[in-house]
Fold this sequence. Notes:
- By secondary structure, the protein is mainly α.
- It contains 15 helices and three strands.
- It has a three-stranded antiparallel sheet with strand order 1-2-3, with no helix packed on it.
- It is elongated and about 100 Å long.
Amino acid sequence: MYAENGGHLRAQLGTLLRQHRIQQRLGGAGSHTIPETTTVDERRLLGEQIARYRQSALVWSVQAVRAANPRMNLLGTSARTRGPADELGHRLDITIEHSSGPPSLEELTTEQPFPMVETWRNVARAAALGEHDFDAGLGHGRLTRVQCMTLLKDASDVVRGLVVLDRRYSNIPQWQPLKDAGWLNRAAETCSTFAGRDEPDYTIDLRGWRPRIAPIDGAGLPGIVGVLQAENNLLFQLGSFPDARSLRLILDSQRIVSRDAADLVKATRPDLAQEWKARSGTYLRLARATRDIGGMLGNGGPAAGEAALAAARVQHLDVLDAAADSNALRHLDNLFRGIDDRIAEVIQQGARERIYFARVPLPRLDTGVSARVTPTRHRFTPITADVCPALLDIVRDELRAPTPASKAPTRAAASRAEFAAALNHRPEPRRAQPGPSL
């Protein structure tokens, strides 16, 4: 997620921006009380390694600029015809082309002995992980204009920080400076000013790549944690499309889990109890609406098994302590939302692709006089809005309730303010030594 990867990158860069006396931090000569512990060649190798870590941050920056403002072709343009974002992307391309290569996998995964180099490794790791965000909801076309400006300002400030560190590290033996660092810094400052004119939208921190849910294997866990384990595994197993019979079992199990969970927390969390009681009613109506639904395509056995475990475990729980189990209740509510979304997708996919069928009576005129009891004939037809209007209405209006407006993380503004302060950080002046007494 962008809040984790981008925020971690800024935090680590902020740590580096507050560090001075670079040679001493790499084992070079310090004061008379701090001996030199590394040779010139060793510091040169450390500088080359830092430059490779820096390359990852440069690549992340240019990808962020392109995600905020994708200008595909800059051939034939000049500094006068390029906009602030285009100019910054152009300068970053030149800098990356003339910089050293990226770090190896071993350098990214091996802890470094010097704390400053280790901080650079964390910068490179955050940049490498952050590249996944641009293909998972953080690309152009998925962001609003204000979110694009927020992303552009973040990238511009990161570039400004890299330029400051480049100048500060110039005394490292054979240090490789950034190509045209002055032009790059000017482009970054212009772009930061341009993108900072609007009020930022920090809900962008909620976007990006998220790890896929994984099953929790092993024996059944006790208490509410066991219910969470079964619900988590149910959500994982719902990645496979369930057949109609398994779907009905899953719907009924969720009715039981929501009903009993609401009864357990009604004394301590009446707000959650009301929401879960309404969810139980929704699944009761879904179970009734799918009573005549058929369809053999799919593999819902594992999901139905986990759903049955969740229903069985919740029935053996006592009253929950809201203070002690607040995190568990929050996780259970999040799992409920994920399961609701997935079941809504399943039912809508079954209707759209004609996987689920509804059993409807077939009227006929019986001319036989010998039969005393005439069985009703049925036929199966794909579920549509005309055949199963109640089912699809419940999915659309109740199961997929309108999601509340997203709120930015509480630390979104503060983390950026801290990084801005780090950009303008200056070392504390040394105390004046007292003169000789007369």
